[in-house]
Amino acid sequence: MSDTRERYFVGDFRHTLDAKNRLSIPSKWRFKGDEEVEFVVFPHPSGYLMVLPPAEAEKLRKAVFEQQLGDDTAQKWQYKTFSQADSLQLDANGRFTIPEKLKQKVGINRDVVLIGMMTKYAIWSPERWAAEAPDETRDNAHELLKAAKV
Question: Which pTM does this prediction carry?
Fold first, then answer.
């Protein structure tokens, strides 16, 4: 049974994987019933792991369902994305294991930075996040909002 609250993921959190490559998800990002559902995780082309909770995964599934079998670009995107993806479940302690192939793909060793993206979240290596982290001298938030059409 899932929690009836809307999910949202905001903020950033620094964590260290344990010896079994398990990552503890922040308690404010955990919801009742999370141990019973799957999260889709895949390497994003920008160099981080994208984590989709069930509602976001379902949106993606519907979008993929609508793609034409004869659309070579869509098919190529699907096999390149989903051949590298995995589905993960949280354990009773709010952790999931990050598969070694996903860690290697995005340069994660032991330390990670979790970045909230409102309806989903990202897992970055600290080094890669440092290059992308918001910087008032580099990023104009107003221009980014306009470009994102928010």
Answer: 0.85
